[in-house]
Amino acid sequence: MAGGWETMETAPVEEGSRVLLFDGTDQFVGVLTRYNTKHTGEWRLWAGAKPVPWDGGIPTHWMPLPDAPPG
Known about the structure:
By secondary structure, the chain is mainly β. About 0% of the residues lie in helices and about 30% in strands.
């Protein structure tokens, strides 16, 4: 995986962006959504289906997802 952890200030802002997130304790794959009532970006847990709220801490860092393996 190229690069390293970046601060959230540099995270993607496009709806549907998927990245690896870190909240100070856990890592998870997040997708940026606009589900909240203010229509501001909100990172949610993504496991391949409908994104669900993340019940951990607020993400502090992000990293691009690696490419899928060949095959």
